[in-house]
Design goal:
By secondary structure, the chain is of the alpha+beta class. The protein has 3 domains: 10-114, Crotonobetainyl-coa:carnitine coa-transferase, domain 1 (Rossmann fold, 3-Layer(aba) Sandwich), CATH 3.40.50; 121-204, formyl-coa transferase, domain 3 (2-Layer Sandwich); 210-267, no CATH class. Helix content is 41%, strand content 13%. It contains 11 helices and 7 strands. The chain has helices at 28-34, 37-41, 54-77, 87-105, 140-149, 153-157, 164-169, 171-182, 187-197, 214-218, 260-267; strands at residues 10-14, 82-86, 121-126, 132-137, 201-203, 222-226, 232-236. The strands form 3 sheets. The chain has a 3-stranded antiparallel beta sheet with strand order 3-4-5. A hairpin with a 5-residue loop joins β6 and β7 (232-236). The longest helix has 24 residues, at 54-77. It is globular, with a radius of gyration of 25 Å. The relative contact order is 0.09.
Length: 273
């Protein structure tokens, strides 16, 4: 194809880039297990895949990024090229921060659920009615502010809790104390206070609840799209703005083979140079 169409850019989405593994079959879960992600996600001894198909998604992303780079190079050279994107290499890229930690310190990283947190208050707490809320206080000022929100100035004044380093040293006991304080708080009232005070917090949200998320709705992040069976569904747009606008749905979901003749017709005659 490249002999006839020297400007052609072709993308291969693969399991593995060329090397000893390239003939193996790959699935998102397979590469999560062999690429370090499952080990880092689950507690010690219980590797756990991430809650979404991150490598399938990133494979498409890196393929698209490669095309953009190839287009720029074609502007300079006049020639296209093949771009390869692979699931295993995606996953290794995600785990690279942990690989680098070991390479530079000699300390193997512990799985995330067993890690020693760099911040003393950075956890999920159970509130009234069984609700759960993540709260993060990642600076000394934020810890003091959190204590004010909880009306526990006595906690803020304790000498052994004045710095993050001190609080990390007693983190299990501190989290247990905060858990006792928070267990009777109503989630709506506490969330409003934390937001007003500038404390990072987050409800634990299920995917189906995001279809009614007020921010996604107001920001235009959910839009209708026609499906291949003639119906419609709501889809999430790309997570970016271009010129102040969200890139919209360009066309309905294609039926199998719908655009085959259109694509082949464009390839029938080499473009004029």
């Amino acid at each position: 194809m490249s002999k006839t169409f020297p400007r052609l850019i072709y993308v291969s989405h693969k399991g593995f880039l060329p090397g000893p593994y390239e003939k193996r079959l790959a699935l998102d879960e397979v590469v999560q297990m062999m690429g370090g992600l499952s080990y880092m996600t689950g507690p010690p001894g219980r590797p756990l895949r991430a809650g979404t198909s991150v490598n399938d998604i990133m494979g498409g992303m890196f393929g698209a990024i490669g095309v953009l780079a190839a287009l720029r190079e074609r502007e300079r050279t006049g020639r296209g090229q093949e771009v390869q994107s692979a699931l295993f290499e995606n996953c290794v890229f995600l785990a690279a921060q942990h690989m680098q930690q070991y390479a530079m310190t000699g300390e193997p990283p512990a799985p995330m659920p067993a890690r020693v947190s760099a911040w003393s208050v950075y956890d999920v707490f159970k509130l009234a009615a069984g609700e759960q809320l993540f709260i993060g206080a990642v600076s000394d000022k934020q810890f003091q502010t959190l204590c004010q929100v909880l009306e526990r100035q006595d906690l803020a004044a304790e000498p052994q809790l004045q710095t993050n380093t001190q609080r990390v040293a007693v983190r299990p006991a501190l989290l247990e104390r905060l858990g006792e304080i928070l267990k009777d708080h109503e989630i709506d009232a506490l969330s409003a206070k934390l937001e007003a005070a500038g404390i990072p917090y987050a409800r634990i949200v299920r995917p189906e609840q995001l279809l009614d998320d007020p921010h996604l709705r107001a920001s235009g992040g959910l839009v209708p799209m026609h499906t291949d069976d003639g119906g419609t569904t709501e889809v999430v747009l790309l997570p970016l703005l271009m010129g102040g606008r969200r890139p919209a749905v360009r066309q309905p979901l294609a039926r199998v083979g719908e655009h085959t003749q259109e694509v082949l017709a464009r390839l029938a005659t080499p473009p004029a140079t």
